[in-house]
Amino acid sequence: MKKMSKVTKNNLITYAMVIAAYIVMEILLKTGHVSSLLQGLLVPLCTYVILAVSLNLTVGILGELSLGHAGFMCVGAFSSALFSLTTKEAIPNGGLRFLIAILIACVAAAVCGVIVGIPVLRLKGDYLAIVTLAFGEIIKNLVNAIYLGIDSKGFHFSMKDTISLNLEPEGKVLIKGAQGITGTPHSSNFTIGVILILITLIIVNNLVHSRTGRAVMSIRDNRIAAESIGINITKYKLIAFTLSAAMAGVAGALYSHNLATLTALPKNFGYNMSIMILVFVVLGGIGNMRGSVIAAVVLTLLPELLRGLSDYRMLIYAIVLIVMMIFNWSPAVLDMRKKLAAKLKKNQTEKEA
Amino acid sequence: MSFISYLVTGISLGSVYAIIALGYTMVYGIAKMLNFAHGDVIMVGSYVVFVAVSNMGVNPYVAILISMAVCTILGMTIEKVAYKPLRGTSPLAVLITAIGVSYLLQNLALLIFGADTKAFTSVVTLPNLVLFEGQLTISGVTIVTVVACIIIMVCLTLFVNKTKPGRAMIAVSEDKGAAELMGINVNGTIALTFAIGSALAAIAGVLLCSAYPALTPYTGSMPGIKAFVAAVFGGIGSIPGAMIGGIILGVIENLSKAYISSQMADAIVFAVLIVVLLVKPTGILGKNIQEKV
Fold it and tell me: Both ends of chain A: CA-CA distance in Å?
């Protein structure tokens, strides 16, 4: 085997881990060792992993805190679900239709990312965070207020209710405001989810180690220094932010094609969701893509594994979260860990000697 | 007349936001962290009053004092256990820990009190104020809320500007290192800030639940976020800014609920925030610090 760079090796380990996890899961599925509850969790799990990796691009590589990631997911989910619903008859091939739907989700979220990114990226730090949160909430609220119908004359649009759409009798209501979209074809599955995870990881890892990625990271480390050597700050910030939004859109498509009824609730597209994804990113390690994948998987499965404890599971989840943060970030604990590690090493060398 | 009535309710709601926002802003100014658990301290404060008044029959005013004491202790404990070990690390780490604390408080409340909505009996016994021959009615809660907000605001401004611990707070928020060299007890000052913020949260909780008497473990989270928006709106770190931001936010929310759409009210509030921040990137009263090489 030729000598690989450390980076390539590291990336390959991540891909191998995902594939290995997939194979193990498939074997377990085939042999029937997986509870139906866990089976239902597989596609959302893939969604969360993609979201975590894509948010890590904004938080870890671009270095800006975004609290509105679920908003982009929402755009992707609704645009792709709408497409699949309208072209159910026109494109009978489910696979092809889902592929186009994913691309549409990606483009729609990216466009949204540009629209949001241009004003937002002018701000800094916590102000940026709160504006992304605001955008996420606005997107969720808007989606909840949209009514869209179709008949022989084309699309009808309203912000009030289904009656004001003025549909012909044979017309069909596609988006029913807060009731959302019903009847999206069930095209998502675990395999597609894992393939999308791999694509996302490859895109992000390649970006990070490209010229563009280095430019983005230089902005993160020192904006003024980056500007002084001629890096176009706005352009590179926008590239990273938009790409991150586009991938969240893909996650949205995966999510929406797993549900019969898609509604924009605070639970799935509100700031709670954005924060949950942020938790994955921070706990997994800011800027570390493999960490994001692991954290997303562990933290999604943790409440399910604790299901036996019923009422106490979210409580334990919260405590685990706090303890893990202190364990991983506190200077005092880190110091202690270092000392402990040195001591263990010393003991080992003494034994060997 | 209905416009004035909506405006007054808006100001009252805004006053609650302002009191919560004061807690956010003070903590942010000093510890440079977003205390996401602040909204849940409000919820705890409301539950304490609820239990004291409805289950134990304590005098409502005594109950408020108990609630303030409980919240103060709670706030200081949270600071000591969860935030202090992380001081000086990435603000993101502290933010996530704060989210963890928020989950913890919500789920503890869920375990102890259950998920069902508790009907909160208003602690305000002031009669409604009827003006213009019955055309305009202002509820007692509204008046008390606005008055409480003004009193808190004045006391806090005086405390921060005139007393020694208050001046220490300003010093710590300007430059932690320099303040320490001047002999200021930084840890003590930060703890004091959390204590004051949490006590204010208890008052805000009581006022909020008196006006909107439905108490669940998630009561605090949305007003918490709104108050946070209000704090940013007015310029985070600034006490008068939190006040102005809170009241403007409450008025916009109530008026858009009344005249545009109740569903879109939140979206409108957030849209206004975005516009304000784009024009004035550090909020209405925020200080604009130029970054130097």
Answer: 34
